[in-house]
Amino acid sequence: MLALAGYPLGQRFRFFDTVEDAVAGQLAELRVGAYDDLEALSHFAEGLELVTYEFENVPVAAARFLAERVPVFPPPQALEAAQDRLVEKTFFQGLGIPTPPFYPVSTRADLLQGVERIGFPCVLKTRTLGYDGKGQEVLRGPQDLERAWTSLGGQPLILEGFVEFERELSVLAVRGRSGELAFYPLVENHHHGGILRKSLAPAPGLSPQLQAQAEDYARQVLERLEYVGVLAIELFEAEGRLMANEMAPRVHNSGHWSLEGAETSQFENHLRAVLGLPLGSTQVRGHAAMLNLIGFQPDFARILEVREAHLHWYGKEVRPGRKVGHVNLRADTWEELGARLRALEDAIA
Amino acid sequence: MLALAGYPLGQRFRFFDTVEDAVAGQLAELRVGAYDDLEALSHFAEGLELVTYEFENVPVAAARFLAERVPVFPPPQALEAAQDRLVEKTFFQGLGIPTPPFYPVSTRADLLQGVERIGFPCVLKTRTLGYDGKGQEVLRGPQDLERAWTSLGGQPLILEGFVEFERELSVLAVRGRSGELAFYPLVENHHHGGILRKSLAPAPGLSPQLQAQAEDYARQVLERLEYVGVLAIELFEAEGRLMANEMAPRVHNSGHWSLEGAETSQFENHLRAVLGLPLGSTQVRGHAAMLNLIGFQPDFARILEVREAHLHWYGKEVRPGRKVGHVNLRADTWEELGARLRALEDAIA
User: Where does the chain bind ATP (chains A, B) (predicted)?
Assistant: First the structure.
């Protein structure tokens, strides 16, 4: 999606991935290699103007190695801050951004101490490489301790308080090379089984106060990290207040609605930012929704019969639980959007 | 632009062009060959689901040869009707669609007879292969006869009445494989030196009557040709009436505004049509404008500073008089659009 947004900006692309069948290879030259293959990385960087990434688990060492050769945006320190849940939450707290309570866990003793501090329910998570709900165990009471430890013990962990939030939101923010800032309206996200299923933008009932709060948090993160590009922060809303859950230093699934739902998509704005071009308007066009297509190929014709449904199929092999596309919807009013969303859900079901 | 719109619909592409540096080659496999190289065409068609084109001077023979192997949309008879100005105008008249007066010219005697019938001013044009004002000579009086004949004589020509039109418009229409129809609002086009410079959509002051008239003409053309895909008809408006000038059996420069200005772009709708998918909404989003970038590379940053300016750079080598990109603008009101257009024209100047 970044490349599709980048060709009209006059850009050419070269991709690096660890697997041969990466779909980006359909759009431009694909170099395949391991992230620790310095020779491959070095060849990859040759002749490039800059490097960006859309996967937050790119090893920091690889990003730093590339950054010695070409500009890398977002900067490697953003990857570093986002890859480890403990570092990330400590970073949020250092900026005065509320988070759920947390406790680092390396040993079984740490776990017991953490539970004592935080109380049940709580969630034990791996500090690194978790995504889409993987590497997490919910502890509702003492009976869950053993299962959680057996499942996750032996690696760096973090125990987090289980927040009784009202809803999950995310803020998509952009910072240009000159420091210019732009923010998309807060998005309401619906997960199931730890995977994002649906986003609504702007978040229903969004107040200017909540938006201002989110923008203030995002601004602090962007500026502290000297960030360039699109950043997503996932938030919990509870009693009208926001708490940061995690951040992703890249274009984000909860910003995919912007392809048709905003004046400038997150993909175009990410590229404008890293290229040092002026940022585009983040204004939402009425009301937008995004539905992920996960683990199956729907009937495209049935989807496109829904008014203002736009298909984004990724060209990936369909596998259970894999995000293989999404559908964006747009409408002038919430009522219209609701009706179209129901029609779309029927078409997909 | 068709390919960029097609990837999200799950499509893969193979291109055929007569030149090695065709920009489509940046996006997918490019086969290079002559249009009369049947072996090259035959290899090109192997394994394809269907063929479409975005150049109206593809030889009809090549399209027919391919159509024996795979479905070709728009159908070759549309190319045939559009490639020869005499056939085209006769076709319009056969459907009751008004055109400027015309007279076929093969000899000098025909030219004199034509001038007698039509009167001055008139325009002598080649019947085939004309585009962007090439292959045309305006005759304002008898003194121009010799120059025009020297310049164009010796090939099939057509003499046309020079219409004192108020403005040039175009209608973009789509017909799906099932016969489903959709129409974009009439566009007002501004040419200079025979080349399209600017389009405004919808055409300022557009009345429902004029739109209905244009749609009626387009519908007749689409249905008579059993057309599939996007078709553009260029029209003259004079005294509240429309006259057909020419048609293009393809996505059209005067429809480029639809990328950000319509709910569904002409490129996506062309693909939906040829793929047999439901057509998307052609509703315009407020007011849109398109400015062509011709023969020079502007400062991208200056363009993108203009609110809601979207750059579409084609990645072509810049040459004098060559269309190398365009900029789309959008606004909620005409006043806003006018202000942004002035800012954009300043940025480009």
Answer: 85, 125, 130-136, 160-163, 168, 191, 245-246
Class of domain B167-348: alpha beta
**Chain B within 8 Å of A287 (Cβ-Cβ)?**
no
Nearest to A10 among B268, B281, B313 (CB): B313
Best of B29, B265, B277, B279 to disrupt the A interface by mutation (most A CBs within 10 Å)? B277
Q: Does B316 touch chain A (CB under 8 A)?
A: no
Which of chain A's residues have a Cβ under 8 Å away from the Cβ of B278? 301, 304-305
Residues of B within 8 A of A272 (CB-CB) are 304
Minimum-distance CB partner of B315 among A7, A263, A281:
A7
A261 reaches B (C-beta below 8 A): no
- CATH of region A101-161, choose from 3.40.50.300, 3.30.1490.20, 3.60.9.10, 2.60.40.230: 3.30.1490.20
Q: What tens digit of pLDDT does each residue of A291-302 get?
A: 999 999 999 999
Sorted by where each begins, the domain ranges of chain B are 2-82, 101-161, 167-348
Interchain contact A310–B (C-beta under 8 A):
yes
List the pLDDT tens digit at each of the 349 positions of chain B.
999 999 999 999 999 999 999 999 999 999 999 999 999 999 999 999 999 999 988 999 999 999 999 999 999 999 999 999 999 999 999 999 999 999 999 999 999 999 999 999 999 999 987 666 678 999 999 999 999 999 999 999 999 999 889 999 999 999 999 999 999 999 999 999 889 999 999 999 999 999 999 999 999 999 999 999 999 999 999 998 999 999 999 999 999 999 999 999 999 999 999 999 999 999 999 999 999 999 999 999 999 999 999 999 999 999 999 999 999 999 999 999 999 999 999 999 8
Cross-chain Cβ contact A307/B281 below 8 Å? yes
B177 touches chain A (CB under 8 A): no
pLDDT at B135: 86
| A171-191 pLDDT, tens digit each | 999 999 999 999 999 999 999
What string of H, E and C letters represents the secondary structure of chain A? CHHHHHHHHCCCCEEEECCCCCHHHHCCEEEECCCCCHHHHHHHHCCCCCECCCCCCCCHHHHHHHHCCCCECCCHHHHHHHHCHHHHHHHHHHCCCCCCCEEEECCHHHHHHHHHHHCCCEEEEECCCCCCCCCEEEECCHHHHHHHHHHHCCCCEEEEECCCCCEEEEEEEEECCCCCEEECCCEEEEEECCEEEEEEECCCCCCHHHHHHHHHHHHHHHHHCCCCEEEEEEEEEECCEEEEEEEECCCCHHHCCHHHHECCCHHHHHHHHHCCCCCCCCCECCEEEEEEEECCCCCHHHHHCCCCEEEEECCCCCCCCCEEEEEEEEECCHHHHHHHHHHHHHHHC
Contact A272 B315 (CB under 8 A): no
**How close A309 comes to chain B (CA, Å)?**
8
The CATH code of domain B2-82 reads: 3.40.50.20
Contact across the interface for B311 and A10, Cβ inside 8 Å: yes
